[in-house]
Design brief:
This protein has eight helices and no strands. It is mainly α.
Length: 167
């Protein structure tokens, strides 16, 4: 089924077609038509059908193609800053920031490990739960020079620690 008007008239058949033909050479064209055709419904109905296709594709390579296609389908009115679009974009940005923080934390830990420094559970926990990229970048810079892993958090050198009154 590669006609989006037919998809709009017979969504259940279209979804079934996408699933049944997931390993066909025509799968990309079918998925594209199904995605476009399902957009003719109300957003909640569209999301239902989209999820049904994804579940039906299980662990096939086509499922990954469907997921990539769905990343482009944010809203029925892209660029109009609707509440749905804003929430989606906020979530996407938060997810990217969390991923970047996890990567920095892994980097800090890796430098400490390569240097054969002892990393206690408390130190590991503090590093992996930190979400402040500035702090993580500072720790990454310092991980190559500290004598002990705990020294990353030495008062006065840890930007996340409260400043002590020098008076």
């Amino acid at each position: 089924m590669t006609d989006e008007a037919t998809v709009a008239r017979r969504p259940a058949l279209a979804v079934l077609s996408a699933i049944v033909h997931s390993e066909s050479r025509r799968a990309p064209a079918i998925l594209e038509a199904v995605a476009r055709g399902l957009l003719s419904f109300e957003p909640d109905i569209t999301k239902y059908w989209f999820e049904l296709v994804e579940v039906g594709l299980e662990s096939t390579p086509t499922r990954e193609n469907w997921r990539k296609l769905m990343q482009k389908v944010v809203t029925h009115f892209p660029g109009h800053r609707t509440l749905f679009e804003e929430k989606y974009l906020e979530g996407k940005a938060e997810g990217e920031a969390r991923g970047e923080a996890r990567g920095e934390a892994r980097g800090v830990l890796r430098v400490l490990e390569v240097r054969d420094l002892v990393i206690t559970d408390a130190v590991r926990e503090r590093i992996v739960t930190c979400s402040d990229l500035t702090v993580l970048n500072d720790w990454l810079d310092r991980a190559g020079t500290v004598e002990r892993a705990e020294d990353l958090f030495t008062p006065g050198t840890d930007p996340a620690a409260p400043a002590k009154d020098a008076s």
